[in-house]
Amino acid sequence: MIVMNKKPSDVCVIGLGYIGLPTAALLSQHGYHVHGVDISQHVVDTINKGEIHIVEPELDLFVKRAVENKKLQASPKPEHADVFIIAVPTPFHDGYKPNIEYVLSATRSIAPYVKPGNLIILESTSPVGTTEKVAEELRNLGVDTDNLNIAYCPERVLPGKIMKELVENDRIVGGLNEISTNAVVAFYKTFVQGEVLSTDARTAELCKLTENSYRDVNIAFANELSLICDKAGINVWELIRLANHHPRVNILQPGVGVGGHCIAVDPWFLVSDFPEVSKMIRSGREVNDFKTEWVISRISADIVKFSHNHNRTPIVGLLGLTFKPDIDDLRESPALHIARVISGRHQNVICVEPNVISADGLVLEPLEKVIDSADLIFKLVRHKEFLNLSQKEGRQIFEF
Q: Which residues contact 193 (CB under 8 A, 6 or more apart)?
């Protein structure tokens, strides 16, 4: 194993999405020259103009400054660097099985450019053992991995606060050996103010999946309570508020399901790899997915009831499409799924989403227009613009 004998100065980030681009922009503010790689020419061109293709507070300022200072450039292909960070998607395939092909493709793309002493860091949320597969892929391409520092370091950021949390949150680094772990820990300490914790790669991989599965199971408890309360004629938010006054109880808030590329996805990685012993994790996923379908049924039933009572088709307003409040991210969004299903089944459905310009196949209108014209209004996402909406001319605005 060759240890890097100088502080790294050049970083190559593979994948310029919701994690890769903020990471690249942040590194450029800490003295690194960053070469960003993305397969989308649109993304590359946008970044090279000093602009961004996603919405994230402060990110536009970071990218603009980095490009102007010639600390950040984007390209469809990697270049030689001291540090390579892989931050590409890990979607499903064949049902709920994790697909690491993007990770392996990114690994193959950097193989011609790595050199002894380089740091190879995987940040993509991945099944246990993926970091080992990165090393194996490099070896299959003739790369001497004994002379590389290969480690896993998952992101732990909240959309809407990414630029802040990339710096302040604790990080976990798990290398394929102790030397790799120490080298990558030293790198993250150059820009992370939180604690940088050391472990092995497999533990770090499982830790990321554990964190998101924990959240999913706890959200499932809240969503299951909401279903019980609906049958019992009880206000679930009042119930949770009272229960949370117990000193050892902290129930989360229910919603229309769980979305995003982490909490709605990562538990399936564990269920897929360890099906016999992940029964509660599977149950949590199923509860949260069921809540989304239950909401669709409730909205459809209310539409049919209104049509029967008023002898006309109602105008239906759906508030919010993103997977969580106050962001522009539609990935795995249960609200978006609900809106598309309802729009496909019923006429006169209009949506409000203040954080995006368009959503394929859906009619977007300003909030004021929907409030004034809709007969039935359903709050799907608790955006700040919707928090004080509870009544419309004495009628309830439904929330789940």
A: 167, 168
- Give the tens place of pLDDT for each residue, 29-45: 999 999 999 999 999 99
Instruction: Work out the pLDDT band at 97, boundaries 50, 70, 90.
Output: confident
Tokens of 65: 């400054």
- What span, in angstroms and rounded, lies between the C-alpha atoms of 60 and 58? 5
SS3 287: helix
In the structure, what pLDDT confidence band is assigned to residue 328 with cuts at 50, 70 and 90? Answer: confident
Residue 6 among the catalytic residues:
no
**Candidate list 12, 153, 262, 351, residue with the active-site label:** 262
Which entry of 71, 153, 208, 379 is annotated as an active-site residue? 208
Q: Is 12 a catalytic residue?
A: no
Asked whether residue 333 falls in the same domain as residue 261, the answer is yes
pTM tops 0.85: yes
At 166, list the tokens.
Answer: 């990339």
Q: Give the residue-averaged pLDDT of 173-181.
A: 98
Boundary residue ending a domain (179, 201, 223)? 201
CA atoms within 13 A on the CB side of 191: 21
CATH code of the domain in which 392 resides: 3.40.50.720
Percent of the chain with pLDDT over 70: 97
Judge residue 257's burial from the number of C-beta atoms within 10 Å of its C-beta, 0-12 exposed, 13-18 middle, 19 or more buried: buried
Q: Residue 325's domain spans which residues?
A: 253-399
